[in-house]
Amino acid sequence: MIEIERKFLVKDTIHEVIALIRPHQIIQAYLVNEKSKSVRVRIMDEKAFLTIKSDMIGITRKEYEYEIPVIEALSLIKSFGLKSLKKKRYKLEFRSKTWEIDVFEGALQGLILAEIELDSEDEKFDVPEWVDEEVTFKPEFLNARLINRL
Known about the structure:
By secondary structure, this protein is mainly beta. 13% of the residues lie in helices and 48% in strands. The protein is globular and about 45 Å long.
Protein backbone atom coordinates (compact mmCIF):
# COMPACT_ATOMS: atom_id res chain seq x y z
CA MET A 1 0.00 0.00 0.00
CA ILE A 2 1.20 3.50 -0.79
CA GLU A 3 0.75 6.49 1.52
CA ILE A 4 0.98 10.02 0.12
CA GLU A 5 0.35 12.72 2.70
CA ARG A 6 1.08 16.32 3.54
CA LYS A 7 1.37 17.66 7.06
CA PHE A 8 0.74 21.12 8.50
CA LEU A 9 0.89 23.02 11.76
CA VAL A 10 -2.52 24.29 12.82
CA LYS A 11 -3.70 27.67 14.12
CA ASP A 12 -5.38 27.90 17.53
CA THR A 13 -8.68 28.69 15.81
CA ILE A 14 -8.99 24.94 15.15
CA HIS A 15 -10.42 24.50 18.66
CA GLU A 16 -13.59 26.27 17.56
CA VAL A 17 -13.83 24.05 14.47
CA ILE A 18 -13.35 20.73 16.28
CA ALA A 19 -15.33 21.58 19.43
CA LEU A 20 -18.33 19.44 18.42
CA ILE A 21 -16.39 16.55 16.86
CA ARG A 22 -15.86 13.39 18.93
CA PRO A 23 -12.15 12.53 18.77
CA HIS A 24 -10.44 9.17 18.53
CA GLN A 25 -8.13 8.43 21.47
CA ILE A 26 -4.73 7.25 20.19
CA ILE A 27 -1.80 5.66 22.00
CA GLN A 28 1.16 4.67 19.86
CA ALA A 29 4.64 3.31 20.32
CA TYR A 30 7.47 2.18 18.05
CA LEU A 31 9.08 -1.28 18.02
CA VAL A 32 11.45 -0.16 15.26
CA ASN A 33 12.19 3.51 14.70
CA GLU A 34 14.87 4.05 12.08
CA LYS A 35 15.22 6.56 9.25
CA SER A 36 14.59 3.92 6.58
CA LYS A 37 11.75 2.09 8.33
CA SER A 38 9.44 2.05 11.33
CA VAL A 39 7.20 -0.51 12.98
CA ARG A 40 4.44 1.08 15.02
CA VAL A 41 1.90 -0.25 17.50
CA ARG A 42 -1.21 1.92 17.69
CA ILE A 43 -4.29 1.63 19.86
CA MET A 44 -7.16 3.75 18.56
CA ASP A 45 -10.26 3.62 20.72
CA GLU A 46 -11.10 -0.11 21.00
CA LYS A 47 -8.92 -1.34 18.10
CA ALA A 48 -5.19 -1.87 17.69
CA PHE A 49 -2.89 -1.99 14.68
CA LEU A 50 0.64 -2.98 13.78
CA THR A 51 1.95 -0.68 11.02
CA ILE A 52 5.14 -0.98 9.00
CA LYS A 53 6.34 2.08 7.06
CA SER A 54 9.24 2.58 4.66
CA ASP A 55 11.36 5.69 4.28
CA MET A 56 9.75 8.58 2.40
CA ILE A 57 10.64 9.35 -1.17
CA GLY A 58 9.24 12.83 -1.71
CA ILE A 59 5.94 12.60 0.19
CA THR A 60 5.34 8.95 -0.70
CA ARG A 61 6.14 5.83 1.28
CA LYS A 62 5.02 2.24 1.54
CA GLU A 63 2.71 1.40 4.43
CA TYR A 64 1.40 -1.96 5.61
CA GLU A 65 -1.15 -2.06 8.41
CA TYR A 66 -2.63 -5.04 10.25
CA GLU A 67 -5.27 -5.12 12.94
CA ILE A 68 -4.15 -6.94 16.09
CA PRO A 69 -5.90 -7.60 19.42
CA VAL A 70 -5.70 -4.65 21.84
CA ILE A 71 -4.39 -6.96 24.58
CA GLU A 72 -1.44 -7.87 22.33
CA ALA A 73 -0.74 -4.21 21.52
CA LEU A 74 -0.68 -3.37 25.24
CA SER A 75 1.55 -6.39 25.88
CA LEU A 76 4.02 -5.29 23.19
CA ILE A 77 4.23 -1.80 24.66
CA LYS A 78 4.72 -3.14 28.20
CA SER A 79 7.02 -6.08 27.34
CA PHE A 80 9.44 -3.92 25.36
CA GLY A 81 9.20 -0.92 27.71
CA LEU A 82 8.20 1.39 24.87
CA LYS A 83 7.52 5.10 25.24
CA SER A 84 3.95 5.91 24.24
CA LEU A 85 2.78 8.99 22.40
CA LYS A 86 -0.80 10.08 23.20
CA LYS A 87 -3.06 12.24 21.09
CA LYS A 88 -6.65 12.94 20.17
CA ARG A 89 -7.48 12.68 16.47
CA TYR A 90 -10.32 14.64 14.93
CA LYS A 91 -11.48 13.81 11.40
CA LEU A 92 -12.88 16.70 9.43
CA GLU A 93 -14.23 16.87 5.89
CA PHE A 94 -13.26 19.98 3.95
CA ARG A 95 -14.19 20.31 0.28
CA SER A 96 -14.37 16.55 -0.32
CA LYS A 97 -11.08 15.73 1.41
CA THR A 98 -10.62 14.27 4.90
CA TRP A 99 -8.27 16.14 7.21
CA GLU A 100 -6.97 14.42 10.34
CA ILE A 101 -6.19 16.86 13.13
CA ASP A 102 -3.95 15.48 15.90
CA VAL A 103 -4.00 17.26 19.25
CA PHE A 104 -1.05 15.93 21.23
CA GLU A 105 -1.07 15.31 24.98
CA GLY A 106 1.48 14.94 27.75
CA ALA A 107 4.97 16.27 27.00
CA LEU A 108 3.82 17.25 23.49
CA GLN A 109 0.78 19.19 24.73
CA GLY A 110 0.23 22.33 22.68
CA LEU A 111 1.32 20.72 19.40
CA ILE A 112 -1.47 20.38 16.85
CA LEU A 113 -0.84 18.89 13.41
CA ALA A 114 -3.14 18.30 10.45
CA GLU A 115 -2.59 15.69 7.75
CA ILE A 116 -4.25 15.14 4.42
CA GLU A 117 -3.82 11.97 2.36
CA LEU A 118 -3.61 12.44 -1.38
CA ASP A 119 -3.98 10.24 -4.46
CA SER A 120 -0.83 11.66 -6.07
CA GLU A 121 2.07 13.88 -5.04
CA ASP A 122 0.92 16.69 -7.32
CA GLU A 123 -2.77 16.54 -6.40
CA LYS A 124 -4.29 19.97 -5.86
CA PHE A 125 -6.45 20.57 -2.79
CA ASP A 126 -8.06 23.44 -0.93
CA VAL A 127 -6.41 24.53 2.31
CA PRO A 128 -8.72 25.47 5.21
CA GLU A 129 -8.18 28.84 6.91
CA TRP A 130 -7.12 27.14 10.17
CA VAL A 131 -4.08 25.54 8.48
CA ASP A 132 -0.73 27.21 9.18
CA GLU A 133 2.81 26.34 8.05
CA GLU A 134 3.43 23.19 6.01
CA VAL A 135 5.86 20.81 7.75
CA THR A 136 5.71 17.87 5.34
CA PHE A 137 9.44 18.12 4.64
CA LYS A 138 10.48 18.74 8.24
CA PRO A 139 11.30 15.30 9.68
CA GLU A 140 11.09 16.59 13.26
CA PHE A 141 7.29 16.58 12.84
CA LEU A 142 7.04 12.89 11.98
CA ASN A 143 5.40 10.93 14.80
CA ALA A 144 8.40 8.60 14.75
CA ARG A 145 10.57 11.62 15.65
CA LEU A 146 8.10 13.27 18.03
CA ILE A 147 8.17 10.22 20.28
CA ASN A 148 11.86 10.91 20.94
CA ARG A 149 10.81 14.12 22.77
CA LEU A 150 9.08 12.06 25.46
